[in-house]
From TrEMBL:
The organism of origin for this protein: Shewanella insulae
GO biological process annotation, one example: transmembrane transport
Membrane topology: Multi-pass membrane protein
Compartment list: Cell membrane
Name by which UniProt lists this protein: ABC transporter permease subunit
Keywords: Cell membrane, Membrane, Transmembrane, Transmembrane helix, Transport
PANTHER family: IRON UTILIZATION PROTEIN, MOLYBDENUM TRANSPORT SYSTEM PERMEASE PROTEIN MODB
Entry-linked Gene3D superfamilies: MetI-like
Domain of life: Bacteria
Amino acid sequence: MILGFPKSWSTLSYLTAICFALPLGAICIQALVPDEAVFGHLMQTVLPTYIFNTLALMLFVSLGALLIAVPAAWCVARCDFPGRNWFQWALLLPLAMPAYVVAYVYTDLLDYAGPIQTWLRQVNGWLSPTDYYFPDVRTLGGASVMLALVLFPYIYLLARTAFMEQSPSLLHASRVMGASPGRSFWRLNLPMARPALAVGAALVAMETAADFATVSYFAVPTLTTAVYDTWLGYGSLAAAAKLSAIILLVVFCLIGAERFARRKQELFQKQTPITSHERYGLSGYKAWLATGYCVVLLLLAFGLPVWILLGYAWDYFDVSWNQAFWEYSLNSLTIALVVSLMTVVFALLLMFVRRCSPREVDILPSRLASTGYALPGTVLAIGVLVPLSYLDFALNDLYAYFNQVEPGLIFSGTLFVLIFAFTIRFAAIAIGSIENSYKQISPSLDMASVTMGMKPSAILSRIHLPLLRSGIFAAILLVFIECMKELPAALLLRPVGFENLATYVYQFVSDEQLEQGALGAIVIVLVGLVPLIYLNRSLEQGN
């Protein structure tokens, strides 16, 4: 903290936080607008189904991701088996896959006209669907499986870290008492990792609640698809805002549960990561069972979809490699780069004020600006469009009052709205990354700088920025990738005639023509691998 820190910096941080919190306030205000015609009709007909499907999907995906991730995390953290060093980071690769692309790939494989059912009919002589039973993938259960395959790395990463940080002395004590590895897992490792698992499950549930493309493709009506349909189908912004408020209630309940789980976590022993000789050495069929499980999981969640996409991209390369592909790729790269730089600038401002200001209230702006990440894309779109539309109308009325040519929708009808929404959505990522880097900088450096007569701007530029380089780089990287993958907000807020890679690929998916959009999907996946490689290097350094 710096005594006499200028209030102008604090004022600027509060103005930034207020702008970032506008969507949340706009949704709450818009939800109070009466709309008995549309929302009343929804309440009497389909709203219970929307709520049930959303909650059921969140539950099934969270449970499925836990069942998938926990065994893999424990094996990698506590056991030695063939391929362990590779699997510890390779199991993060599914995070690079858009869920709707995985959903299309498996639908194409498992549908009646797909290769698997066709082969079964040829082998067994079946002539029609009535001759045999095959589960329908386009159901709530099918959507749950697809999302669990893509989202399980959230839980895997947290569980792996929790298992590795458990004290080796507890492991030694359990061995002395004659506990088998399985008994130690159930009685010791798993209970101690429960807070981390709760946090991971909450993150998976939040991502599930925010998903639009997968459930839309599988025709599973949820609150997220209801917002989209109500806004564009019924033309009722008030009803869509009311549905968004319900989603926000669910999301904030999950955030509260996650905070509660983290608050209860208490560690009474020094966290010393285990070494190789302290792991269980698996041999024989147990070793190959662990390796086989990780291989199958990685193939199903990443390897098979990528292989099929590469095949599509190769077969349809001449169709996909065109001017439109380059244009949409450039659009995605430009938007992602601009948003990445803007979020880092705002995050630096907010965290610098939080670190240096002696006033306790200056902690609030950084927390307030982080609320945007809790807003699903469809909800954020409404929250952004409402205030910007009012601003556009007010500006046009002002021009008309002075008999000037009205400028039109310069905020809500241009790329400004998309950049603004993405910046709000992903500012929390940049804030978190820079906050972690700030924790590594000793406060004594700030005190020494003030003693030498340096102003706050000089402290930031000459002391903090060089020491924050790794955090800034990580923030730019992570925000860039999230912008490349973000779909719901882009679908709802893009200007007329504007497409990026995410919307371009989704249009082919929704038209059952992913083959022609496979090249764009491969680009999204390849770009998504960059932060995973960076994270892998961090994991290796941590071990």
